[in-house]
Amino acid sequence: MRIDILSAVPELLESPLNHSILSRAQKKGLVELQVHNLRDYSTSKQKSIDDYPFSGGGGMVLSVEPIDLAIKSLSEKVEYDEIIYTSPDGKPFNQKLANHLSCKQNILILCGHYKGIDQRVRDNMVTMEISIGDYVLTGGELAAAVMADAIVRLIPGVLSDEVSALTDSFQDNLLAPPLYTRPAEYKGWKVPEILLSGNEKEIDEWRLEQSLERTKKLRPDLLNDNDQTL
Ligand code: ADE
Asked: Which of 135, 141, 146 to mutate to test the pocket of ligand 1 (most atoms within 8 A of CB)?
């Protein structure tokens, strides 16, 4: 899989994409993550990529031309399955959408910035708009990093123990059960006896019960979510 990210502030993406699991996934050749600086596609002398809105009011708007030139140039090398714009107006990002996108070959994420983006980009180039939550960030870079992280870890082979992605919270609309490690007792706080029993069948049943209980208590909305669509 390949994920291209087009940004006005590419520096913001350096650290999240180049450490730990995402760095290893790239080294193993399981994913290619490429960040592109929108300014490289500006045709102005000052390398400007934004302008004042025609409507007046505050804030700057990312211009259509550099984005068009960038997408055209990148699309000559890669055929994108989706061109995603990060925006608080977008479809809410969740595990279902992460699963869906992890099955794609090539995606391009266009990070919004400043006050917004020329509507003609959204109308004519973008195929999907995604929000990572009902709050407003200063730009789409952190949203793009969140999405890339959630998507890449689902690619087979990225996590050393593949089962661990399948047993994530949300993967089956249930929160994950509690986890414990050694010591079996600390300050009088004991690990549940069942986990020390070695009885795999009973442990699996206990884990499912715990998942259900946790979900009922913390996220009952998930239990009523039978919607299979994105
Ligand atoms: N850009 C600004 N806020 C955002 C959000 N909540 N999700 C995605 N992109 C954004």
From this structure: 135
